[in-house]
């Protein structure tokens, strides 16, 4: 066998193994989605927040993608200094669908007042998210437990 042939054969065998180990898992992609979403809320970047939401979004309150975008725009106009704290308490992935449960606290400033906008020090708000996979990207398609009072 020639040297070229051995190198080509080695690359054909090694490349899939390397891709398999370096390609992020669905779980790590979902965790990153929530980290990046929290960071986008803190930085009040509406386009980055909405990049994590499916155009097919619906929930128990009848909200959809456009209502969420408009609502977040109003929240960002009213509040500053937003800090999001969350903990993923459960994550279940099955094929192209996933369910995640999070405990969430949001601290924000409205005018001269600073306090908890979502949850409090003793009890965070427990929310459930349904996610759908579109190619290699996960998007939020439904939420339950969304506090609408902030």
Q: What does this protein look like?
A:
The protein is α+β, with helices and mostly antiparallel strands and 150 residues long. The chain contains four helices and five strands, in the order H-H-H-H-E-E-E-E-E. It has helices spanning 3-22, 26-42, 46-50, 65-78, and strands at 80-94, 97-110, 113-118, 125-134, 137-144. Strands 1, 2, 3, 4 and 5 form a five-stranded antiparallel beta sheet that branches. A hairpin with a 2-residue loop joins strand 4 and strand 5. The longest helix is centred in the first third of the chain and has 20 residues, at 3-22. It is elongated, with a radius of gyration of 20 Å. The chain starts with a helix and ends in a 6-residue tail after the last strand. The mean pLDDT is 90.
Task: List SSEs in N-to-C order.
Answer: HHHHEEEEE
Number of helices: 4
Radius of gyration: 20 Å
Multimerization state: single chain
Helix content: 25-40%
**Averaged pLDDT, please?**
90
Largest sheet: 5 strands, antiparallel
Question: Count of DSSP E strands?
Answer: 5
State the separation between the terminal residues, measured CA to CA. 71 Å
Low-confidence stretches: none
Strand content: 35-45%
**How does the helix and strand content classify structurally?**
alpha+beta
Shape: elongated
Helices and strands in order, then pairings?
Layout: H1 3-22, H2 26-42, H3 46-50, H4 65-78, E1 80-94, E2 97-110, E3 113-118, E4 125-134, E5 137-144
Antiparallel strand pairs: 1-2, 2-3, 2-4, 4-5
């Amino acid at each position: 066998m020639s040297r070229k042939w051995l190198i080509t054969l080695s690359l054909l065998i090694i490349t899939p193994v390397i891709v398999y180990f370096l390609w992020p898992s669905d779980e790590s992609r979902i965790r990153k989605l929530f980290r990046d979403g929290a960071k986008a809320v803190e930085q009040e970047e509406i386009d980055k927040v909405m990049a994590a939401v499916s155009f097919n979004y619906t929930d128990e309150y009848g909200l959809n993608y456009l209502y969420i975008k408009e609502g977040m725009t109003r929240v960002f106009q009213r509040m500053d200094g937003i800090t999001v704290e969350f903990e993923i308490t459960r994550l279940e992935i099955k094929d192209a669908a996933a369910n995640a449960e999070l405990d969430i606290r949001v601290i924000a400033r409205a005018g001269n007042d600073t306090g908890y906008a979502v949850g409090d020090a003793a009890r965070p708000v427990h929310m459930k998210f349904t996610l759908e996979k579109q190619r290699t990207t996960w998007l939020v398609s439904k939420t339950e437990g969304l506090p609408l009072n902030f």
